[in-house]
């Protein structure tokens, strides 16, 4: 097995770049703020601090925080988003206009504040996360200077926020801020007061960063859950969960396990661990069942073994993050806890065994009541969805109208839908939590929810989130998974902690526009969002140009300009824009570099440009050989020929006896040739009129 040392280093470089807190767009953003201070109800931009910068496919997003005397005002932010061509295309404001100017010098120390907080929530045993920050706080009767202490510890599920008056030491607020999966669609209440145990407080040890040795591994997992893959119903013979923590093996459930490849597992001196460049197993909450390290890279457990949930959660979270970062090309890794920046920690058996799960502070914890949450891919992808929301916004996740709950449901459904377990006529086609819910444990949720926004809002974040997940899946059904996933993630990255579903819809569509989706795709989004009750503004006219084009002059050392309309993309409200270009189609150019302007007209006109580089004439053989590729090789049904071909160039396929079997004109620079009728063997592809040949094998 090949060890992977380089990937971890590349990931860390990618992570640090994509989350740099400086931007050459800051000056332009501040100039825009100054021009719009009255509309934004600001005095000036002098009390704004750039706190987070994100660069990705849809452009660059800057987040400014409101400050008083150098101290941040809690839960405030101005988001300014730039498209890839440098235009400000989206803004979102969450400022406190009524905050008072106060002294920002605390009268008690941070250490004393933590001691008060620890006593209030009963901190004891291993502390897995603790953070203390000073804020100007205006969420109560008056503006105060406060310490905000957030603590997670193994003795008590959740992530506990204590708001403490930084002058008097008075506890102003205590609550669990972890985002829980919920039960029967609602939040699960946790008692605030906790008896202090006899255990002393100590902090979780963090491994020193070093060069990691990864190897490929394997695991047995559910894809995405046993009922869906079996096309079964909860309660069918063998398809019922053991009571409590029974987790009984049945032949039916074990048969639904699938053997999957784990691209990375950690190998330290022959001990294998569920740890990759993206994800790592930890014991974060009780019960403590260990880390399931072993002497083999094959994590093959049956369902009755606790290691099954560990491997299942590891596979699904790692798979999701690889899909985002490597397939979609969107930078998104854990960035809210510096102790393990770039890596998501997960505990497959926490919540003190309760039937719940949660995300907080860069970690995922899964409970074990009724159906173990770590056995259902929907639960895993949903909880990870909260993490994605948190990381993309630099910690500004919003639960207004259940936005993050709906986002988690969408992310899970987008994944499980591609497995094609159910047909559109099956009720379970739209189920969320098909194994964990829709049974005697709890009712689950759905992505064909009939309520519309805003009249259908109930005030329950889990219920209301279904409006958001449902409309996203309706878009998914039309434009496909990858396009919808990209727009969803990039749009979500523009939102802030007070964004509602209405503004999130605008952000998602704007991300699609900034990434130059086709006009038909943007119109689909507009239509689906509008039908779901969101108010969508008119789509501004836009045209997207191709990248610079390099071509070769013909044998007369001239080049006839073709139409570049098919390479350009005009976006408008009605998709009726007319595209024209300069130089005009048919213009004759000598070798050189020329600016090309593409114009879209629909009432008004907009344009974009690129460079056309005409290189001197090549011989016929040089034309053919330039960038020439033939693939796949071996081939079974077709081969693809790509290169810079002369118009009308022909390819001929010969067998080893020299018999010509296929002849085809190469009309574009990438052509498919059907070889399905050829017998198995070796063939030669010859480019007519040249000495260039390529061999390939037909299976």
TrEMBL record:
<feature type="domain" description="FTP">
    <location>
        <begin position="62"/>
        <end position="89"/>
    </location>
</feature>
<keyword id="KW-0482">Metalloprotease</keyword>
<dbReference type="InterPro" id="IPR026444">
    <property type="entry name" value="Secre_tail"/>
</dbReference>
<protein>
    <submittedName>
        <fullName>M36 family metallopeptidase</fullName>
    </submittedName>
</protein>
<dbReference type="InterPro" id="IPR011096">
    <property type="entry name" value="FTP_domain"/>
</dbReference>
<keyword id="KW-0479">Metal-binding</keyword>
<dbReference type="Pfam" id="PF07504">
    <property type="entry name" value="FTP"/>
</dbReference>
<keyword id="KW-0862">Zinc</keyword>
<keyword id="KW-0378">Hydrolase</keyword>
<dbReference type="InterPro" id="IPR050728">
    <property type="entry name" value="Zinc_Metalloprotease_M4"/>
</dbReference>
<keyword id="KW-0645">Protease</keyword>
<keyword id="KW-0732">Signal</keyword>
<feature type="domain" description="Secretion system C-terminal sorting">
    <location>
        <begin position="630"/>
        <end position="693"/>
    </location>
</feature>
<feature type="signal peptide">
    <location>
        <begin position="1"/>
        <end position="20"/>
    </location>
</feature>
<dbReference type="Pfam" id="PF18962">
    <property type="entry name" value="Por_Secre_tail"/>
</dbReference>
